[in-house]
Amino acid sequence: DFSQLPQCEDGQHSDQCFTSDQIDIIREIYTGPEINGTLFYPGFPLGCENEKGSWMTWIVGPDPGTMQLNFPNLHYAFGTELCKYLIFNDPDWDYSTYDFSHYNEDTRYAAAYLDATSTDYSAFEGRGGKLIFYHGWNDPALSAYTTIEHFEAVRKKNPGVDEFMRLYLLPGVLHCGGGPGPDQADWLELVRKWVENDQPPGKVVLSKVRDGQVQMTRPVFPYPSTAKYVGKGDPLDGNNFVEKKP
Q1: Which of 56, 97, 126, 172 is most exposed, with minimal Cβ within 10 Å?
Q2: Which among 221, 122, 136 has a CA at the least distance from the CA of 173?
């Protein structure tokens, strides 16, 4: 409930409160922006906002690494540079003056070769292909909701998707890795066993390794199942979690 955030008085600027504009922006980060009343991109899940390499690097800034490149954050860098030099072919393009109500029409040509929205995997499945998606729940670069949406769209088109596709969501994991959550598993070996030995993956035990030492383990299960703590034992030990089906 964003209304519970401390709100600044009119004209006040402080690191102890939020302006109404800041609250609106925070809300849109979590819920996703709209264009012409239609959701343009899903928001980001709660959690890991203050982790190193998370929101400060990707979403809000300023981040020392990105500032050296003259960008406040990586979303800004990728977004503005992509629009300038690939989509609009205009180095003077400025998001702050652009009328986004025309975005879908203006980007239709670029979308034809950039968007990966097809849900037809029939040729891939027909060749015996197997595919494992994994996505950090707290990825600040690409929202995990986008991968869930794609997986659900594939399932809607092909109810037998579980015969050739799996999705795993990694709690506390950032973009491809990092964050406080467990981010290591031998995904390639799981695909090999599925393709060569007809052993579809089920529970996968992830590890968090720092300085060569395993800090924690945690099982993940094929979406939409999640891991549930049994209520006793070390929460850093994956043996103390069981599968929770929706």
Answers
A1: 97
A2: 136
Residues in the chain: 246
| Contact assessment for residue 175 and residue 141, using Cβ atoms and an 8 Å cutoff | yes
Give the integer Cα–Cα distance in Å for 48 and 52.
9
Question: In this structure, which long-range contacts are made by residues 115-119, counting pairs with CB atoms below 8 Å and at least 24 apart in sequence?
Answer: 117/150, 119/150, 119/153, 119/154, 119/156, 119/157, 119/158
CA distance 130 to 158: 14
232 CB-near residues (< 8 Å, 6+ apart):
240
- Block residue for tokens 């990966």: 116
For 172-212, the pLDDT digits (tens) are 999 999 999 999 999 999 999 999 999 999 999 999 999 99
Q: Comparing C-alpha atoms, which of 62, 58, 111 is closest to residue 83?
A: 111
pLDDT tens by residue, the chain, 246 residues: 888 899 999 889 888 999 999 999 999 999 998 888 889 899 999 999 999 999 999 999 888 888 888 899 999 999 999 999 999 999 999 999 999 999 989 999 999 999 988 999 999 999 999 999 999 999 999 999 999 999 999 999 999 999 999 999 999 999 999 999 999 999 999 999 999 999 999 999 999 999 999 999 999 999 999 999 999 999 999 999 999 999
Q: Are 56 and 174 in contact (CB under 8 A)?
A: no
pTM of the model: 0.91
Exposed e or buried b for every residue in 179-189, given b needs 16+ CB within 10 A?
bbbbbebeeee
